[in-house]
Design a protein that fits this description.
370 residues; alpha/beta; two-stranded antiparallel ribbon; 17 helices
């Protein structure tokens, strides 16, 4: 994990010398209004001014960033002569910044070429990742999830998909509204549990996952119980938990709830965290069958049980309209000849047929308990 991390209050100032060493021109990559509302954009612009670094802002990154949008940002970075990128926001702008680095350095790439082998490509532009949500862990992972020209979400990964510097100031999460706070916390919970239950988990990944879960679960239960935004102390816990969860999946990758959850985002418009966590109860049910000791470790750590955990997750994810059997089979067909790696590393493995059953179930766990 090669990212240089600056963590804590005013960490943008602590990172100033390292950021200045990256060059004299930066493309700032943002989406929506979070960079402004959080105060992160103002802090970044102030730092750049103090260090004599000129900048241009690309603020067109959408949720679930599209390869075409990132490709356009890469053209803008080249036209401006940017030496590096600064991504500010949640997972979408941070993932986008990683991909834009490749497009900026490799002019011949078409949008979906990003999914290629990268053999012979020039190294991507370096990037500074400034997180404003507590969930994705993108600051510390070598993964970028993009939406291709066919409308499907798919990730790129590897050494060239890390940021260069991560600025992790939990205060930037204060402006995140309740719904997004819930969804990003659910994403962090999914990362930690999926990593812990992964077939390829090791001692280090498990340590990160177990460090992530108590603060994230504390945040989720408070959000569920009160229906109100967290205070500053809980915001900090959620953010640190999300980073530990990111470090965990950086070793193992995710499990089937992520790939199946992509369907809910693409077809139903559910935010990523809610879409992924919708299948967490199904994961717990399978772990209870295939790795019961690991399941019990998690419940003991959270001082809870499967019924309570499932109830909290269902309340926070909300209901979703199941797909018809015909729709589910058609959607799951994408996995028949291109089995996601996170299917095979799931406990008991996972198949396209399993995915189809999950998509048509009113309550995902029931499809595997009959």
């Amino acid at each position: 994990m090669p990212v240089e991390i600056f963590c804590g209050e005013k960490s943008i100032e602590s990172a100033g010398d390292r950021i200045a060493a990256l060059g004299k021109k930066a493309l700032i990559v943002t989406g929506g209004t979070s960079a402004v509302k959080s105060g992160a954009l103002a802090d970044v612009i102030r730092l750049l001014g103090e260090r004599g670094i000129s900048y241009r802002i690309f603020d067109k990154i959408e949720p679930n960033p599209r390869t075409a949008t990132c490709h356009a940002a890469g053209r803008e970075a080249r036209a401006f002569g940017a030496a590096f990128l600064i991504g500010i926001g949640g997972g979408s702008p941070l993932d986008a910044a990683k991909a834009i680095g490749w497009y900026a350095a490799n002019e011949a790439l078409a949008p979906d070429d990003i999914y290629g082998s990268r053999s012979g490509w020039r190294a991507p532009l370096p990037s500074v990742l400034v997180g404003t949500t507590a969930g994705t862990g993108s600051e510390v992972t070598g993964v970028s999830v993009l939406t291709g020209e066919n409308g499907r979400k798919k990730s790129i990964s590897g050494f060239g998909c890390y940021g260069t510097i991560a600025v992790c100031d939990y205060r930037y999460t204060f402006s995140v509204p309740y719904g997004a706070t819930v969804s990003t916390a659910l994403d962090a919970f999914a990362h930690a549990t999926e990593s812990y239950f992964a077939n390829n988990a090791n001692t280090l990944s498990e340590s990160y996952a177990l460090a992530a879960l108590p603060p994230v679960w504390e945040g989720l239960t408070a959000l569920c119980r009160t229906g109100r935004l967290p205070d500053a102390e809980l915001r900090e816990k959620l953010y640190i938990g999300s980073l530990f969860a990111g470090l965990a999946i950086n070793i193992t990758g995710t499990l089937f709830p992520h790939s199946v959850g992509y369907i809910l985002t693409e077809a139903r418009g559910l935010p990523h965290g809610r879409a992924t966590a919708a299948f967490a109860p199904l994961l717990f049910a399978r772990v209870g069958r295939f790795a019961p000791k690991k399941a019990q470790t998690i419940f003991s750590l959270l001082d809870s049980d499967e019924r309570t955990v499932t109830a909290v997750l269902r309340k926070l994810t909300g209901s979703w309209q199941p797909f018809s059997p015909e729709e589910a089979r058609a959607l799951a067909s994408r996995w028949e000849n291109d089995v996601p790696a996170n299917f095979t590393r799931s406990p008991g493995s996972f198949t396209a047929a399993d995915g189809a059953r999950a998509l048509q179930a009113d309550e995902p766990p029931t499809a595997f308990r009959r």
